[in-house]
Design brief:
heterodimer; A: alpha+beta; 9-stranded mixed sheet; B: 2 helices
């Protein structure tokens, strides 16, 4: 990755992660959680956002801490960590807002060469999944570990 | 609380992986839960789960991701 991720606190199940965003708005706690899909045990949903005063993830807040690239690099690191722990699984992500979906798309596009060596990445557009390509307005993404065929 | 062998192996594998692939990332591994594991899903999380369920009705993914137990 072009940007160095933040230091991460990782739960030993590798399903939950926390880190602090640091910027002009101060130190803001972020959490990433991977939850199994009730429909397919092969896929996990990525939830990501600020931790609110009740200890819950708020994935609609716009933090504006001027560090979105570093934050996304950290989220990418958690995806890699999750897939290392669960190599047969896929991570499903779509942004809670158009802006966030676009951010995911940019983060993947900017690091595509590096990512494609490690991961298989699919984008959802016009009613179908396809291998991720740059400059396509994908609505959702699924990422898995490359060259993994077994269960 | 004693850690089960599967978790220990996963942690060992993770440390080796991070050293190899993400040498600049600092991390701390903790036990337990960071949030309330029994907390009900928010409306948005429910919507995402529904959306994920729906996404699996569309073609184009590797077959292993369509497997349903």
């Amino acid at each position: 990755m072009e940007h160095e991720p933040y230091e991460v606190r990782i739960l030993d199940s590798f399903l939950e992660y926390e880190f602090y965003s640091r910027g002009p708005r101060g130190r803001i706690l972020k959490r990433v959680v991977y939850s199994i899909s009730p429909e397919s045990p092969q896929l996990y949903n990525l939830s990501f956002g600020d931790v609110d005063k009740f200890g819950k993830i708020n994935d609609q807040v716009i933090t504006d801490n001027k560090d979105s690239i570093k934050v996304l690099a950290t989220v990418a690191c958690t995806v890699a960590s999750f897939l290392n722990a669960y190599p047969s699984k896929g991570v499903y992500a779509f942004g809670s807002t158009e802006v966030r979906t676009r951010l995911y798309r940019i983060a993947i596009s900017n690091n595509l060469e590096d990512f494609q060596d490690r991961f298989k990445i699919y984008g959802f557009v016009s009613g179908q999944w396809q291998p991720f390509r740059k400059n396509i307005d994908y609505k959702g993404f699924i990422v898995g570990k490359n060259n993994f065929r077994g269960k | 609380m004693k850690t089960d062998p599967e978790t220990r192996a996963r942690v060992r594998r993770f440390r080796a992986y991070m050293k190899r692939e993400w040498p600049n990332v600092r991390f701390v591994i903790v036990k337990g839960s960071l949030g309330d594991p029994n907390a009900p899903l928010t409306e948005l999380q429910k919507q995402k789960m529904e959306s994920m369920k729906d996404a699996l009705n569309y073609p184009g993914l590797p077959p292993e991701w369509y497997e349903r137990d």
